[in-house]
Specification:
This protein is mostly helical. It contains six helices and no strands. Helix 1 runs antiparallel to helix 2. The radius of gyration is 16 Å and the shape is elongated. The mean pLDDT is about 85.
Length: about 100
């Protein structure tokens, strides 16, 4: 494995994760960016430029940089608030931009 290629791959992957999370934070569709990153990661694994554990750690680090909390901390809290709003019929919750609800 070429060290320079590995470093270039990880820098590019970090930028892709940053783009995905910043786009999500802006309440925009991330599907295309996510699919591109998934293919990129798959290629990196096939070429032995990264491991699944490294990718997960990098994604977690970038998520913390962008949102200030871990992936695990963000998902359940937002999910629970959304479910509670639906249960109570609190549709004002959905009037607030998702960007603000995620803070």
């Amino acid at each position: 494995m070429n060290y320079a290629q590995r470093e270039l791959f990880l820098i590019a992957l970090k930028q892709q994760f940053t783009d995905i999370f910043n786009t999500s934070k802006a309440s925009k569709d991330t599907a295309e960016l996510r699919f591109r990153a998934q293919g990129f990661v798959h290629a990196g694994e096939l070429l032995e430029l990264c491991s699944r554990a490294e990718v997960k750690q990098l994604m977690e680090d970038v998520h913390k940089d962008v949102f200030g909390i871990s992936v695990a901390e963000r998902k359940p809290k937002e999910y629970d608030r959304r479910q509670q709003a639906l249960k109570l019929g609190d549709y004002d919750y959905f009037d607030e931009p998702a960007f603000n609800r995620l803070r």
